Structure formats: structure tokens, C-alpha cells
Amino acid sequence: MEAALLTTLAETATFLNAMSPEAAQNLGNGYALAAAGIAVGLAALGSGYAERGIGSAAVGAIAEDEDLFGRSLVLTVLPETLVIFALVVFILVLVQ
Amino acid sequence: MLRPEQMSKVSVAGSRTVMEPVIETVHGMNLVHLSDYDGSWDGFEHGDPIEGSEDASEKLVTVRALESILDLDDDEAGPSRIVSQEEIDDELDGIQAEVNEFDDRRDEIRNELRQVNERIESVEPFVDLGIDLDLLRGYDSLEVRVGHGDVEEIEAALEDEETVDAYETFSGDEVVAVFVYPVDDAEGALEDALVGIEFAALEVPDSERAPEKFLTELRERKRELQDRREQIETELAELKEEVGGFLLAAEEKLSIDVQRSEAPLQFATSKRAFIAEGWIPTERYDEFETELQDAVGNRLEVEELVRADYNDQGHATHAEAVEPEESASEEPSPAEEEEPPKAATDGGQSVGAHGGATMMDDSPPVVQDNPDIAEPFQMIVNTVNRPKYNEIDPTFLVFLSFPFAFGFMIGDIAYGLLYLALGVVLFRSESVGLRAMGAIALWCGAFTTMFGYLYDELFGIHMYELGIHLPFAGVISKGIASPDFVNFWLVAAVLFGIAMLSLGWIVGFVNDLQHGVVESALENLSWVVALNGFFVWVFSQHLASGKPGFIVGPDAALNNGDIAGFLTFSGFPETVGLIGLGLFVVGLVGIGVGEGGIGLIETPAYIFGHTLSFLRIPAVLLAKAGMAFVVNLLVFGEYVDAEGHTVFGLPTQDIAVMDAQFAGLLHIDAVPFALLLPIAILVFVIGHIFVLLLGITSAGIQMVRLEYVEFFQKFYEGGGEKYQPFGYDRSHTTQD
Do B12 and B343 touch, CB atoms closer than 8 A? Predict the structure, then answer.
């Protein structure tokens, strides 16, 4: 088991060492993009989870009093900021 | 524009003999927002409704009940008419009797129909079984059950039951009839056997006839009843046609009567005099006074008590006093003996609490006063809340910022034109709300088209790729193809945010001036100083090595001659940055003094978070551009031309000589073009509709949020009272 793991590691190291600098650069960029993509996705998940509760409460409040629509909308979109920031970070990673 | 219409408090005092004509005149003008008498004056009570109020209310209830039975809509009235009291008295009873009779008959038929339906439902399973109903009950020695269940399961259960001597089952498609002969004296043998398995027993209908025949009879009866019901519906519809207009007009007349006769409830009255107060737009006071004098003559005293200032709640104690006018009544009216000290002021001093001029100490109602072009945006503001009388109405500021930012985010000629078309459709609607939305859509569409022209984009495709070259088209770019612009838009959005937030606090400063200049400045301008100081430091050379390259330095986003020649800003000098930092600290001290610890805790969110929140503008810009790009990529594909530019494989391009990066739907060689074309068109249309609609929800909602959360939070309270003048907008009746 241990031996097999060591062999895999050694093989990976050989593979990476044999890479041209350009290939390594590409691989790095790819990881950066993937990481940024995951970051946006997770942030969106967070926003969505936060809005889920607020949204249902807001609909309940509006059902009671339609005048609360504006304030409900504001409260519901508050967590949107999370994903917007993540998107900005993604754009920065993409551009730099 | 930024303030609501100025309101004046008027007082009308006179003898009770003229109260009715005064009410009628004031009601007809539909101008005065009545204030409630608070009952605080000695000798003055709340008025009683004028005689006949109860009768009118009663009739109104009848008319509304009839309308509800007839399912009468407001738009089914036909031309407006004159309805007299006599006409209502004469006709209403007859109509009521007729409608009620129809209604009773309809109810009867409905009930019977329901019963028949129930019986049909209960008989249907027995038709399926095929056994006459009288054979299924009335045995002495047999137990019988009919119901839904699995035959094999039932038989197995009966086998196992010891008290069952013999049994027989008959099954139709869905139901099973079980006959059991129990062993001697055993009672409930069948129940016991079935208790452990799934079996839903049905009640056997009480009829001697064969189930088929019974069912046919029932169905016939049902058809008959349905016919009769339809007939009644038709007759009711005819009746509705006949009396609908009259009922709606009568409702309107009775509503007006009730409104008028109950008005004295808001008045202060003594034995022989009455006083009413209310708010009217200041500029219409003269009209109001003249009309009342014309109607009632000089037995009445009309007076403008105060003009409400904008810097307070309009309470009489603070408001600008109106110079005493010559009393409208030349001769003392009989009422005057009983009246409290008159409302006249001396030498422009404040009136109110001490003088007792206004008996009703309420805030003026709010009539928003915006230019016609900005008026639709009141809807966006009022969704949060109506502005208070003493605060600045932000409608015009929303009008300046909302369509601009929306257009910037979507920026596409084709989308802009579609939004314009949508706006035109909505604008033609009857509903006030939809019309306002239509107007907003028109503005947003116009700005979208304008920005689309500057971006040089049509459905996400650059017009130059189509061979169209227009002046100034393409001076700016969304940044999909030119990353320089991305950094530029990020910085520009932050600057826009700083401007909006500063403006918000400055408006807040003006609103709070009534609490004192120093206090208001500490509470509001401190934030402006801290915010701007902080960002001056951010955009300065101080500690430049630690700041990202696109903020300061030679690569700064604002130091980019490629975008525009005047962009040569690479950061404020270090000294300016330090001054900014100093201002930031000064601002923080001000916030601490003005708002206390809570204010300081809010600083990171308000100064940093809220400013960066404006980054959603370029984020949406890029997201929208990216989505439109993907749709076009799928349809046209991407090619690199001889000069190394990446272009869409549009029909105008000669892609044969280009290097294919991604073959679009239109250019798949393996599939016949005739088959590809409809698919490509479908993808193009659905894709762009999708982007267009998401544009409304993302760009629209995000900008609304920036207005509500980031901008309004800095100054806006809202909660103004709606101006509801005493009167009625007649739509079904006329007076002449």
C-alpha cells in the first residue's frame, strides 16, 4: 500500500519535472481558473441559502401587508452581495 | 422637484345651518385632506352624521351585495348617468327581489346537482359489479360487504377466519362484493376477517332498481339540472346587462352620500357652529376660498392658518404663519359668539399651541411634485415608502441614476429597442402602475440603446463585424475582448459609488438641518469626509507597492491612453494621500461624536462595503455580455482572421480563409445546412430572449437594490401620509 503510494507520487513528480515551463504555466492558470470558478459557485450557494429563508419570510410578510414589498425586496437581495464580490474576484483572477 | 407640493392648513368655520352646503361644495372640489378633530376644545364635540346617513349606508350595502351576486365589474357600467335618490328608492327593492329570487333558484339547483353527483358517484361502482342493489342487502343469515380491495387477499383472510363457515366473492373491475355465512351465533364475522387487510367498504344505495337503470336515471336528472342552471345563468346575465349600469351608478351616488353625511364626524361642532380643518395645496387656496364664498356667501369664515414648512412636521407651532387676512365675513356670523379665539395671528408670530389656532395638530399629507418625465420613478421610491413632507423626495435622483446605470449594464442597441417596444406596450395600458413601469422601461430602453451604440453592439455582435461603421460607435467596450476596460469599469464603479453615497449623505444633511446645523453635519457630513478621505488615500502613491497595480502606478486603470487620451491618472501624490488619511480620521471622530459607538461599528460596512457594492454594476455588465457572447458563439462560431482578430463566423465574414477556433451551429459541415438553419435560428432567438429577460431581473433588481440599500439608507425615512382629498372621482355618474 505504502509502496504503491510512493510509486504514484514518484511518477507524478517525474511527470511534473518533465513538463515544459509553458505547460506548467498553463496548468497553473487552469487551476487558478478552476479555483475561482469554485469560489463563485460556493458564494452563490451561500447567497442562495441565505436568501431562501429571507425570501420565504418576505413572501409571508407581503401576504399580510402588500406595502412591505419594497422592504422585503431589499432584505431579500442583501445576501446577493456575497456572490457579486465573488464574481468580482473571479473577474480579477481572469484579467490579471 | 425635490420637495413635495407646499400644503396649507385651512380652517372653515360657520353656522351649522350652512354646514351641508359647505360639505357639498368642499366634496365637489375634491381638494381638502380633512384633519380629524381631537376633541380637545371645551364646548366643541365631534359632529354627528347628517340625517339620512344610516339609510344611505344600508342601501349601499344592498347595492354592493347585488353587485357581488351578479358578479358585476366596474367596467360593465356603460355610459355615465344621473341617478336621483327617488330612482334608487323606487327601483332598488324591485331589483333586489328579482336578483334574490334568481339567486335562490340557482342555489337550489346547485344543491340538488351536488346531491345527484354524489349519488352518481356512489352508484357507479355497483354498475361495475353487475348485481342488483336489492340483492346486496336485507339478509338474515348472510353478511354482505361491497368495497375496494384485493380479491385474493380477501379470500385468504376469509379462509383464515374461524367464525366464517362459507363465503363467496363477486368482483367487478374495481369493486368486490363479499358474501359470508358465519358459523352459528357468530356476529361480525366478516368485519373480523376484513379488519387486518386493506378494504374500503362502500355503502349500498337505497334503491330497488338495477344499478344501470338507476345510473341512467340519475345522469338524465343531472343533465336536466345543468340545463336549468344554464338557463338561470343566462337570465341572470340578461338581468345584469339590464341593471348593471344602474347599480354601479347607484353605488357611486350612495358612496358619495355616505361620505358627505359622515364628514361631520371629523368636524368640531357646538350647538350652533362647526369648525373643520384640513390641508390643501397652498397654490390652490385662493381658488378654494373663492368657490366656498360663492357657494355659501358670507356666513362662513375661511382662513389659511399655516403654510407648512419643509423643515419640520408641519406642526402649527413651528410653521410659517400666514399674515392675518381680512375676515371673509363682514358681519359677525351667529357662530362667532361661540367660537374659541380666532386663528388670526399677530405680526407673523407663530400660531398654534398657545393661540389655539389649529385644533388638529397633524402632519401635512404629501403630494409629490416631480417633473412629468421623472414622475414614473415615484413608483420605485414609493415601493419603499412615500417620502415624508419634511424630507427630500429622492424621485428625481433615482430618475437620474437608475436608467443610466441600467443602460450601462445592458448596453445593446437591439435589446434597447426591445425594451423600448415593451415600454410602449406597457405604457398603453390602463393601469397606472403598469403605465409607470412602461415609462421606466422606455427610459431604460433609451439608455440601453445609447450605451449599445457606444459599445457598438447589436445582440452582442459588434456592428463593425457586420461591416457597419458609425461615428463614435465602439468608443467604449464591455471588456469581454479588452481586459483593460474591465479594470477601468471596476474603478469607475467605485468612483460612481463614492459619488452616490456622498450625495446620499448630503441629502441626509439637508433633511437633518432641522435638528441643528452642527448636529446634522456631524451625523452626515462626517461620513462624506471619512469616505472621500479614505478613498483619496486608496488612490494615492502612499504605500503604492502594497496596492494592486490597477489602482495606482503606471498600470493604473485610470492611466490608460488606449481608452481615452485624458486618462493619465496614476495616483494622487503621497502627501495628498496622507491628507486623505487625515480626513478619514477626522471623519471617524465626527462619526464617533455624532452617532456614537454604533456609528463607528458601522464604518467598515458603510465606507468600504457599500462602496464596493457598486462593483455589481460592472459584474452584471460582464455577466450579461458573457451570456450574449455564448449564444452568438453557439450559433456563429469563433474564427481568427488574417490579422489575428477573433471574430464571430457571421455570414458577412469569409470564414473559408480563417482559422476556426469553434465551429458554430451554422458551420457544421457534416450536417445539411437546411437542417442546421432552423436549429440555429431557434438557439439564437431563445438564447437572446433569455438574456433579455435576465437583463431585467439582474440589471433592474441590482440597481433597485443599490438605490434602496446603499443610497436610500443614508438619508431616507419615508412614511408620509397620502393626500386623500375629501371628494370622489366620479366614473359612473354625472352631476348635470
Answer: no
CB nearest B705 (choices: A67, A74, A95): A74
Q: What angle do CA B34, B35, B38 make, to 5 degrees?
A: 145
Looking at residue B526, its amino acid is S
Query: Do residue A95 and residue B612 have CB atoms under 8 angstroms apart?
Result: no
Give B685-727 pLDDT, tens digit per residue: 999 999 999 888 889 888 998 998 899 989 998 888 889 888 8
Of A26, A22, A6, give the one whose Cα is nearest residue A14: A6
Write out the three cell numbers for B474. 465602439
- In this predicted structure, what is the pLDDT of residue B361? 67
Q: Which residue of A has its CA nearest to B618?
A: A88
Alpha carbon B697 to chain centroid, angstroms:
15
Start-to-end C-alpha separation, chain A: 42
Is the complex ipTM more than 0.90?
Answer: no
Hey, which residues does B175 pair with through a beta bridge? Answer: B148
Q: What is residue B572's predicted lDDT score, i.e. its pLDDT?
A: 92
User: What residues of chain B, 484 to 503, have a C-beta less than 8 Å from chain A?
Assistant: 486-487, 490
Question: What phi, psi does B42 have (nearest 5°)?
Answer: -65, 135
A33–B contact, CB cutoff 8 A: no
Instruction: Return the sign of the alpha-carbon dihedral for residues B288, B291, B294, B295.
Output: negative
- Say if residues B29 and B727 touch (Cβ distance below 8 Å): yes
Residue whose cell numbers read 451554422? B666
Q: In 10 A of CB B184, how many CB atoms?
A: 6
Do the Cβ atoms of A71 and B702 come within 8 Å?
no
Grid cell locating A92: 480579477
Burial of B623 (0-12, 13-18, 19+ CB in 10 A): buried
Cα(B305)–Cα(B352) distance, rounded to whole angstroms? 9
Of residues B451, B480, B446, B453, the one with CA closest to residue B468:
B453
* Torsion (CA) B447, B437, B435, A67 in degrees, nearest 10: -150
Cα B510 from Cα B529, distance rounded (Å): 16
List the 363-392 stretch of B: residues with Cβ below 8 A of A: 382-385
The CA-atom distances, in angstroms, between B374 and each of A70, B58, B501 are: 19, 44, 21
Using CA atoms, how far apart are residues B180 and B155, in angstroms rounded to an integer? 11
- The neighbouring-strand residues paired with B401 are none
Q: Is the pTM of this model over 0.90?
A: no
Tell me the Ramachandran region of residue B327: left when phi exceeds 0, alpha when psi lies from -120 to 50, beta otherwise. beta
| Residue B702 near chain A (CB below 8 Å) | yes
B chain contacts of residue A37, beta-carbon cutoff 8 Å: none
Distance of CA B35 to the CA centre of its chain: 28
**Distance from A41 to chain B by nearest Cα, in Å?**
14
Residues in contact with B678: Cβ distance below 8 Å, sequence separation at least 6, in sequence order:
none
Cell 439637508, located at residue:
B510
Contact of B429 with B706, CB cutoff 8 Å: no
Cα B589 to its chain centre, rounded Å, is: 42
- Is B480 in the A-facing interface, judged by CB distances under 8 Å? no
For the ranges B190-199, B495-504, B670-679, the lowest mean pLDDT is seen at B190-199
Q: Are B511 and B523 a contacting pair, CB within 8 Å?
A: no
How is B183-205 classified by DSSP, letter by letter?
Answer: STT--SHHHHHHTTS-EEEEPPP
CB B249 within 8 A of CB B732: yes
Cβ–Cβ under 8 Å, residues B115 and B218: no
Q: Find the radius of gyration of the CA atoms of chain A.
A: 23
Residue with cell 452584471: B620
Element (H, E) at B320: strand B320-321
On chain B, the residues whose CB falls within 8 A of the CB of A77 are 701-702, 705, 709
Q: Identify the H or E element spanning B528.
A: helix B526-538
Tell me the residue ranges of DSSP E strands in B609-689: 637-640, 646-648, 659-663
